[in-house]
Amino acid sequence: MDPKRGLRILLIEDDPRTADLVRAGLAPEGHEIAVAGDGRTGLLRAGSEAWDMIIVDRMLPGLDGLGLLRMLRGAGITTPALFLTALGGVDDRVDGLRAGGDDYLVKPFAIAELSARIAALIRRGAAKPATTVLRVADLVLDRLSREVSRAGQRIALKPREFSLLEYMMRHAGQVVTRTMLLEAVWDFHFDPQTSVVESHISRLRGKIDRGFERELVQTVRGAGYRLGDAA
Q: Rounded to an integer, what distance in angstroms lies between the CA atom of residue 216 and that of residue 230?
């Protein structure tokens, strides 16, 4: 992560005035600020896209900030996260840090302090090696080289298949629904009433599991799909 370039920041905030303030205040530094207005949308975007930083409110519709951060950390997503919230008590701060937050800034706040805290978190994270390789059993995906292998055998995937597998590996062991896959991999925020997910899963299963004793791509009847050994 190059600290001299602008950062890609996800702001999960339901107050439009606060979102506009943050966006306007950080724009001169070259940062790209994307806004999610509720917890569930924020969770989906945080878990399916690459970000340098996540800024999250504690009180959000749909899914609160604490639950959101716990789910991200539980899925192995280590993107630096800063809570930006009106809840400023000691217990509130402790809860935020224990949920997986890396810093905590109380509203009202100064943009200069927010900027300084972002820079400090990025410097702190720069000392840690980025997670670029995902592993599930003997399946390996390298996000930088975009190479996939299983038991040492190279597997050729098309770009959409690679994105689908990456998403499922980042949520290994969890059930991912058809809707989650449509939004994360195809950016469809509506049901196109096609079998696009099913056909891609079928092709991915053929490439990942064919010829191997253990099947990793699982169909969870009535719920969705899961990557990992059958429960």
A: 8
